[in-house]
Design goal:
Length: 110
Amino acid sequence: MITGSAPIDGKVLNFLKGCFCCPIVEGYGMTETCAGSFTTFANDPVIGHVGGPLQNVKVRLRDIPEMNYMHTDENPRGEVCFFGTGIMDGYFKNEEKSLEAFTNATTGQV
């Protein structure tokens, strides 16, 4: 079974694993990344994470100094930036929103 779209509580996930006696894969993605970008392994006994990135994406955690979010923190935090062939080019017929949302994290260019 696969779960995604929203975080699932660990107690609920453990209950479902026991109830259905099957592996449950957790996933994470966004509309802009064409759905799945991270998934757990089917046999992963640890809950509370979304696993590693899939082959179609490269991921970077970008520091946000004005919010004091740094990838070097004990619990790393920042803006999650996605790169890859599965990332959409922009919003349909909405160039303004596309320019606002899609910039190169390194250069600031679209």
